[in-house]
């Protein structure tokens, strides 16, 4: 039997994609208001769960169900190239799913619930007959939840030892909703190919300019709501900081909207960091809020 190359396993897990959920998990840890030093082991376990385990599993699942397309477009990838031979891509998906759930169970009941939901979305994103990725509305929404909302919730749940405060859940949901627009940025580079393959991304469905406008609104509106909430909760300086970040994003969006196809990757590299910086600022706003630190919801 052909041996699996260890480097191929790491490659099929796409480590570069782990940053987003690990960042969101850190936001959850910060927003919980709980002391970090006394939770070091569970935090490390949560980082492992959010990045290499759940996100890594989603990448393996995606590569397995995309193996036939990758054999044409990217034959050097681990599965179509045979570096992960036979059905081992599928077996690895099952193994990693099981290990992820086991780790989530060890970290707490609400963490397990979040992991179950996230992994279900990960499989539905790639696996027939669901294939959420074939429709930009559903696929991008699933990724936004899995990359931002669920890891944030998980970080807070681990620290709280139960269901996080409702304000944390609201912020996590808002930033996850905004991430739908971030995911759309990745779809401008393959409009022609997606059209031929029947992948109904937003640029395919709406056209480049209109989908870019939708993406910008989807990214901006949740941040406006976050600003309003922070003001209502008395975190005026944090709200002002998020306003500043949103203004910078707006200025960058002007150039992006002029030529979305040419500038999508440019905006993703420059504009998205301001978005995720706002996540952390919002998390710090809740960290010392008596509304959160006074107990669980």
UniProtKB/TrEMBL annotation:
<feature type="transmembrane region" description="Helical">
    <location>
        <begin position="239"/>
        <end position="257"/>
    </location>
</feature>
<feature type="transmembrane region" description="Helical">
    <location>
        <begin position="152"/>
        <end position="175"/>
    </location>
</feature>
<keyword id="KW-1133">Transmembrane helix</keyword>
<keyword id="KW-0149">Chlorophyll biosynthesis</keyword>
<dbReference type="InterPro" id="IPR044878">
    <property type="entry name" value="UbiA_sf"/>
</dbReference>
<keyword id="KW-0812">Transmembrane</keyword>
<dbReference type="GO" id="GO:0015995">
    <property type="term" value="P:chlorophyll biosynthetic process"/>
</dbReference>
<dbReference type="Pfam" id="PF01040">
    <property type="entry name" value="UbiA"/>
</dbReference>
<dbReference type="InterPro" id="IPR050475">
    <property type="entry name" value="Prenyltransferase_related"/>
</dbReference>
<dbReference type="GO" id="GO:0016765">
    <property type="term" value="F:transferase activity, transferring alkyl or aryl (other than methyl) groups"/>
</dbReference>
<feature type="transmembrane region" description="Helical">
    <location>
        <begin position="269"/>
        <end position="288"/>
    </location>
</feature>
<dbReference type="GO" id="GO:0016020">
    <property type="term" value="C:membrane"/>
</dbReference>
<feature type="transmembrane region" description="Helical">
    <location>
        <begin position="101"/>
        <end position="125"/>
    </location>
</feature>
<feature type="transmembrane region" description="Helical">
    <location>
        <begin position="214"/>
        <end position="233"/>
    </location>
</feature>
<keyword id="KW-1003">Cell membrane</keyword>
<dbReference type="InterPro" id="IPR000537">
    <property type="entry name" value="UbiA_prenyltransferase"/>
</dbReference>
<feature type="transmembrane region" description="Helical">
    <location>
        <begin position="37"/>
        <end position="55"/>
    </location>
</feature>
<protein>
    <submittedName>
        <fullName>Chlorophyll synthase ChlG</fullName>
    </submittedName>
</protein>
<feature type="transmembrane region" description="Helical">
    <location>
        <begin position="12"/>
        <end position="31"/>
    </location>
</feature>
<keyword id="KW-0472">Membrane</keyword>
<dbReference type="InterPro" id="IPR006372">
    <property type="entry name" value="Chl_synth"/>
</dbReference>
């Amino acid at each position: 039997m052909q041996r699996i190359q260890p480097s191929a396993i790491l490659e099929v897990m796409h480590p570069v994609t782990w940053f987003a959920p690990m960042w969101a998990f850190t936001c959850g840890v910060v927003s919980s208001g709980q002391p970090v030093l006394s939770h070091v082991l569970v935090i490390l376990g949560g980082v492992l769960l959010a990045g290499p385990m759940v996100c890594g599993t989603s990448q393996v699942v995606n590569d397995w169900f995309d193996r036939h397309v990758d054999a044409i477009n990217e034959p050097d990838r681990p599965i179509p190239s045979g570096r992960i031979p036979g059905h081992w891509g599928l077996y690895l998906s099952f193994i990693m799913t099981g290990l992820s759930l086991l780790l989530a169970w060890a970290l707490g009941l609400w963490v397990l619930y979040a992991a179950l939901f996230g992994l279900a979305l990960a499989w539905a994103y790639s696996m027939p007959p669901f294939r959420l990725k074939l429709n930009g509305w559903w696929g991008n929404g699933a990724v936004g939840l899995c990359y931002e909302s669920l890891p944030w919730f998980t970080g807070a749940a681990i620290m709280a030892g139960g269901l996080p405060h409702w304000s944390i859940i609201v912020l996590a949901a808002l930033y996850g909703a905004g991430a739908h627009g971030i995911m759309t940025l990745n779809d401008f580079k393959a409009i022609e190919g997606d059209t031929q393959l029947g992948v109904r991304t937003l640029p395919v469905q709406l056209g480049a300019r209109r989908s870019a406008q939708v993406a910008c609104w989807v990214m901006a509106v949740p941040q406006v709501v976050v600003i309003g909430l922070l003001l209502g909760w008395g975190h005026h300086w944090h709200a002002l900081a998020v306003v500043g970040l949103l203004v910078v994003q707006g200025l960058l969006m002007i150039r992006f909207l002029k030529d979305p196809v040419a500038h999508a990757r440019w905006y993703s590299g420059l504009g998205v960091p301001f978005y995720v910086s706002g996540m952390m600022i919002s998390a710090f706003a809740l960290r010392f809020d008596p509304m959160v630190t006074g107990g669980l919801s």
